């Protein structure tokens, strides 16, 4: 049976910054007015400000850095604040967007008690706030947001629906705020927080590169495994993602390729990406190389295979991972950003970000430790001549792996923004 045909259509026109009853009752407070919202928590900013690994280790020692990994490996929470001048108390609809007309808005529907209510100010206005879950804002972007309060149909036939798409045609009641604007800070890393058990996820991009450029964000993401390791070496490990995580990674992030750096004993019979059939799964029969293993014959062969995935535009956006997102993932990330011209200290900052929550940077106090960027220093020192930049040494390493100059040039054209 087909959809019933409407004989009349009622159009409800809403004026931004006013209520449906003619009273301006909802006012955005913060972040608003174009202010810059710092994405990195204060502890991370203090650590990352250290110019050398030793300095950053010293800062860590002075901080209570041994907090949970999940609370460290995340952006500073985005708390939206607004006030109501006419006693509005929700339900609320929050719209958060990158476009000023809010056409790409993320919709957040809140019950009355989901927003936190504060004290009244001198004028009698009531303060409200709400922490946006899994905001995962991008670096150096402008965002727009708006709050709708208790917008509903007086006859209750339509429930709490969009007032500009009401089916019954009756006039709506409620208040709509003006559109507030804020910008995000540009300092990497850009953490991505997921609801499930996959953690240590962040954008590869955001770092300053050669020639005044910047590594593009939204193109490549690094993190932990999307499912557990196989117990028997045959079975498929349990998926770590929630349904919402899959929707976010395939929808908002648009992941097209799942590069799994684990070996066959870890992945078992995993034959499709935990992100679904729309995402191409790329598995390696042997464990992908890391640290000094990258410079062995077998390691160089696998490195070339991994790198070539990043040389085809159709593969993007790419999510690459091992099980913990540390060693194998960190080694590949070091090579990828290094050949783009990211400075050595920033390469180390990105590598170290995985470990800051543990209060220690691998390899700083114990140079012979199995982990640490000292392995990269020793390996890449074998390439090039005295005075060559690290970018050139990594480029020569990739050429030695079998990667071509054309492939490196294509990768740079994909991943580097113009100055």
Q: What does this protein look like?
A:
- With 419 residues, the chain is an alpha+beta fold.
- It has 2 domains: 26-40 and 75-184, Sandwich (Immunoglobulin-like), CATH 2.60.40; 191-415, Protein-Tyrosine Phosphatase, Chain A, CATH 3.90.190.10.
- The protein has 11 helices and 16 strands.
- The strands form 3 sheets. Strands 2, 4, 5, 8, 9 and 10 form a 6-stranded mixed sheet that branches. Strands 11-12-13-16-14-15 form a 6-stranded mixed sheet, with helices on one face.
- Strand 4 (92-97) and strand 5 form a beta hairpin.
- Helix 7 runs antiparallel to helix 8 (344-352).
- The longest helix has 13 residues, at 297-309.
- Mean pLDDT is 88; it is low at 1-22.
Multimerization status: single chain
- The H/E string reads EEHHHEEEEEEEEEEEHEHEHEHHHHH
CATH class of the largest domain: Alpha Beta
Tally of extended strands? 16
**CATH homology superfamily name of the largest domain:** Protein tyrosine phosphatase superfamily
Work out the strand percent: 15-25%
SS element count, helices? 11
Given as residue ranges, the uncertain stretches (5+ residues, pLDDT < 50) are 1-22
Helix content: 10-25%
Q: What's the quick description here?
A:
The protein is an alpha+beta fold.
List strands and helices in order, with pairings.
Elements: E1 26-30, E2 35-37, H1 42-48, H2 53-61, H3 69-72, E3 79-84, E4 92-97, E5 106-110, E6 116-120, E7 126-131, E8 142-152, E9 173-176, E10 180-184, E11 191-192, E12 201-203, E13 220-223, H4 243-252, E14 257-260, H5 264-267, E15 280-283, H6 297-309, E16 318-321, H7 327-339, H8 344-352, H9 374-380, H10 390-401, H11 405-415
Parallel strand pairs: 2-10, 13-16, 14-15, 14-16
Antiparallel strand pairs: 1-3, 3-7, 4-5, 4-8, 6-7, 8-9, 8-10, 11-12, 12-13
Helix pairs in contact: 7-8
